[in-house]
Specification:
about 140 residues, mainly alpha, about 0% strand, elongated
Length: about 140
């Protein structure tokens, strides 16, 4: 004999395991995406260190350099979102059988997911933007 709660827990165990696995993989994917975006932005800003140094030497504010790097990172993030949302809308039609408690075109999901992507891009771009802002103008002018 088992209680109804135990019976429900037992019958829903496979769904819970699938949801836990999907959530874990989504989190790992988000972390890997953030690291990849960080790598690309760090590489791009390192290649442009001289440019940033010259900008600062010619009177540009360090905050402008910071905003420039962040703006370029955000452009990449917005492009990814603009390409990803139509693909996601198309794919949800086929994955709707796997969804529970969420519709295939739930507006909350399509508002939260881009917000998470933008937050990840911001998080990934902060360190490279800070490094670009801290470039020494004198060493940049010597290397030109």
């Amino acid at each position: 004999m088992v209680t109804m709660t135990q019976y429900i827990d037992y019958s829903a165990a496979a769904y819970r395991a699938t949801a836990l696995l999907a959530g874990t993989l989504a989190f790992v994917g988000l972390v890997l995406t953030t690291l990849g975006v960080y790598g690309v932005i760090a590489y791009r800003t390192a290649r442009r260190a001289r440019e940033f140094g010259v900008r600062i030497a010619l009177g540009g504010a360090r905050g402008q350099v910071l905003l420039l790097v962040l703006k370029e990172a955000m452009q990449s993030g917005v492009l990814g979102i603009a390409l990803g949302i139509p693909i996601a809308l198309t794919i949800t039609k086929w994955l709707s059988a796997l969804l529970f408690g969420v519709g295939p075109w739930d507006p909350r999901v399509f508002l939260v997911a881009p917000a998470v992507v933008i937050a990840a891009v911001c998080f990934a771009a902060v360190l490279p933007a800070w490094r670009a802002m801290r470039v020494d103008p004198a060493s940049s002018l010597r290397s030109v």
